[in-house]
Amino acid sequence: MTLRIGIAGISGRMGKLLAEEVAAAGAELAGGIGRLGDAAGLFAGSDVVIDFTNAAAAEAHATLAARHGKALILGSSGLSAAQEAAVERAARQVPVVYAANFAPGVNLLFALAERMAAALPPEQYDAEIVEMHHRQKVDAPSGTAIGLGRAVARGRSKTLEEVGMESGRDGHTGPRATGPIGFAALRGGQVVGEHTLLFAAGSEHIALTHRAFDRRVYATGAVRAAHWAVRQPPGLYDMKHVLGIG
């Protein structure tokens, strides 16, 4: 049976790429909505919905996924704690793949970041994350940068909230504290996405960098996640699960 995939945000740049990748993967485009549209109808007529809209729509779309018993692939960034809680509630009833980034390379970067953080003590190695995106991006740090920070924190057996974040340094800030993760966000031009994680010690620096040159890599990953999710029991997953590295 052909998989029916719906797209929330189909009129945007990512939405158009997603529609192309749905066809390339041999699935059926069940429908799509833009800023305004019948979201309930989209979920009712799809086996799985891919949502690359924005944080404001996440709670409503997660609720609809649970109500209609349909899998959800969520790629929106900048969700609040309340919005993430709504996604978690939906995942008790349906499979939800919620990822900061759907590029396979980025998710391998997350896995490496966690392993390296576990091996490099924070008392000796400061962790700094630098990201750059196109000038239209509205949230900072990016969801991928936050994902990297969470991976580093997990490697150090803490949450990002426990470790702490340092960003927007300006003026006479004093010496860097030991432990928190530093974030720097750059915006300009039409950069698709660049992320660098730096572990800096007195005697060495180690840098991991990922650069995306085409947004299609996110669309391809999201469609791959859609095919995977419909075969899973209810739960909250990410791309590491889809790739078999989580």
UniProtKB/TrEMBL annotation:
Q: Which purpose does this protein serve, as stated in its record?
A: Catalyzes the conversion of 4-hydroxy-tetrahydrodipicolinate (HTPA) to tetrahydrodipicolinate.
Q: What is its EC number?
A: 1.17.1.8
Query: What reaction is this protein's catalytic activity?
Result: (S)-2,3,4,5-tetrahydrodipicolinate + NAD(+) + H2O = (2S,4S)-4-hydroxy-2,3,4,5-tetrahydrodipicolinate + NADH + H(+); (S)-2,3,4,5-tetrahydrodipicolinate + NADP(+) + H2O = (2S,4S)-4-hydroxy-2,3,4,5-tetrahydrodipicolinate + NADPH + H(+)
Q: Which InterPro entries match?
A: DapB_C, DapB_N, DapB_N_CS, DHDPR_bac, NAD(P)-bd_dom_sf
Which protein are we looking at? 4-hydroxy-tetrahydrodipicolinate reductase
Q: Subunit comment for this entry?
A: Homotetramer.
Pathway, according to UniProt? Amino-acid biosynthesis; L-lysine biosynthesis via DAP pathway; (S)-tetrahydrodipicolinate from L-aspartate: step 4/4
Q: Which UniProt keywords apply?
A: Amino-acid biosynthesis, Cytoplasm, Diaminopimelate biosynthesis, Lysine biosynthesis, NAD, NADP, Oxidoreductase
Superkingdom of this protein's organism: Bacteria
The record's similarity note reads: Belongs to the DapB family.
Return one Gene Ontology term, BP aspect: diaminopimelate biosynthetic process
> Pfam families, from UniProt?
DapB_C (PF05173), DapB_N (PF01113)
Subcellular location(s): the record lists: Cytoplasm
